[in-house]
Amino acid sequence: MKKLTIAVFIIGIFILYSFTYNQAIALLPNQTRYSIGMAGNDSPSSTGTTPASTTTSTNTNGAQYKDGSFTGDVEDAHWGNIQVKAIIQNGKITDVQFLQFPNERNRSVIINNYADPILTNEAIQAQNANVDIVSGATDSSEAFMQSLTTALSQAKA
Asked: pLDDT, tens digit, for every residue of 15-58?
């Protein structure tokens, strides 16, 4: 009876481990969009010179934003920094790119690889920085909103 109990316990731990490991892997979206580190430097706090914005003078009537690329401020996400760049075309947000995100811990990479596309899609749908916080990525979500807010304030038409 003692051997059976130990065997069931070990199998249960293995199943729990397998479930946890497989779920974490399943949460990873297409990783071709993301890279770890910045130009060979894995430190999210590296201070490279990034142009604040690239603007074209195209402004369609009724457009909410000026066309161009606008870089937000670097914001603290507790486990690292987040900085985004908003791409505006025809007065609308068409993409939000992550220039920095927490990547020093494996858990941070998993969280941000999961949350970043969700935050990007919500910002594009909302056409502003007021997006829902992604469960499990509260600090990253808040830093995303802050950085995107500063990028969009530069893009105001």
From this structure: 877 766 654 433 334 333 333 333 333 333 333 334 454 444 44
Measured distance CA(88)–CA(95) in Å, rounded: 7
What CA–CA distance (Å, rounded) separates 82 from 99? 7
The stretches of 50-156 forming alpha helices (DSSP H) are: 106-126, 138-155
Query: Which is nearest to 103 in space by CA: 27, 37, 10?
Result: 37
Q: How many residues does the chain have?
A: 157
Of residues 65, 85, 68, 69, the one with CA closest to residue 127? 65
86 near 96, Cβ under 8 Å?
yes
Q: How many CA atoms lie within 13 A of 60 on its CB side?
A: 9
* pLDDT of the residue at 157: 64
Closest listed residue to residue 73, CA positions, set 65, 83, 85 = 83
In sequence order, what are the residues at sequence separation of 6 or more whose Cβ sits closer than 8 angstroms to the Cβ of residue 2? none
Rg from Cα positions in the chain: 20
- Say how far apart CA 30 and CA 46 lie, in whole Å: 25
Contact indicator for 141, 117 with CB cutoff of 8 Å = no
Q: How far apart are CA 133 and CA 48, in angstroms?
A: 28
